[in-house]
Sequence to fold (355 residues):
Amino acid sequence: MEYIGLDIGFGFTKVTNGNESKVFKSVVGEANEIQFQDSLIKAVGGDGPVLHAEIEGSTYFLGELAERQSAVRSFTLDQNQLMSRYAKTLALTALANIVEDGNAIRVVTGLPINAYRRHKDDLAQLLMGKHCVRLTNVVGEEREVNFTIDRVRVIPQPFGSVFNLMLNDLGKVTDRRFLEEKVGIIDVGFRTADYTICDRTQYSERGSRTSDAGISQAFKIIAGALQEKSGVNVELYRLYEAVERGSIKIRGKNFGLKRITEQAMTQLAGQIASDVNGLWADDWDIDHVVITGGGGGALKTFLEPLIEGEMLAIESSTDMRLNNVFGYRKYAAHLWDRAGQPQAAPEAGAEEATG
Ligand SMILES: Nc1ncnc2c1ncn2[C@@H]1O[C@H](COP(=O)(O)OP(=O)(O)OP(=O)(O)O)[C@@H](O)[C@H]1O
Ligand SMILES: [Mg+2]
Fold:
């Protein structure tokens, strides 16, 4: 039995089995014939995920491959659309990249707090059961991966980061602070910023909320400024690298992004801080605050000084986008691994689907 963590984010789809993890942009595109693919894309193949997949009779390009090669490609910032149109394709491609052919697996995944009630059963249902995915790698080799998902547990997204800090790889509680402390979590993603309180491992409804203050808000400001200057409407998911680099080249001309990025990030951090300080006004007894998510990493230096309370540091060497998915995987081991010692079970208001 393999335990898998799966995080279908608006920005990136992430998956891990504890040893290996894969990340790709949550973009789904039409597959088309690529001529000379051998020489053209091999160099960027590496050990990245295989993003050409056939699922239930349809063929797709995903992530960076769709971004580069699909004439028709879509991504969404709408939760209903993400669930109904893309979640299954993103999830099964991610899983096929990490699961051994023929294996049975159990999956822990998450949803934003505001979508949790509405979508947790659909999400579990679309994952459960037998699946067959045919992957084609960059040199044209095909591989079929069959797997069965026999259990799914859906938890509120930011709890992934809590479990990642609290549990070890075997799913055992190693940081006992979380059993005794009240911890506030700020998970900044691409579309959403989720705020939650984990009060001695209990989920606090009052202290939890999803807002729109994801990194895409800052990206929209940057894209708006770019459109004004260049006339080109840059798709938001094409801005990550440019923002990281501090400049973008459009039709041969370089545009600096440092100043506008700093302005946009400062504004976003201000919004998140005022959300959180308001939401947690009555929870002045929070022991620690954790900033997590890929956006949390990008926003940290702007956000930290504005948050009331003591920060719990997360190792800055790790890719913060993976904090939730690592926690999901550890929680799966905690829930289902019989070899693990019985523990005081953390409860994340979670429900389980079994097949
Ligand atoms: N290597 C990287 N490449 C791209 N973005 C990165 C990278 N490292 C950090 N980031 C930041 O991570 C953000 C995405 O974070 P994350 O993967 O947590 O979002 P998500 O989970 O997909 O979104 P949501 O939680 O809203 O569904 C990007 O907006 C960017 O600011
Ligand atoms: Mg996320």
Observations:
- The mean pLDDT is 92.
- The pocket of adenosine-5'-triphosphate (ligand 1) is lined by residues 9-12, 189-192, 214-215, 240, 293-295, 297-298, 319, 321 (CB under 6 Å).
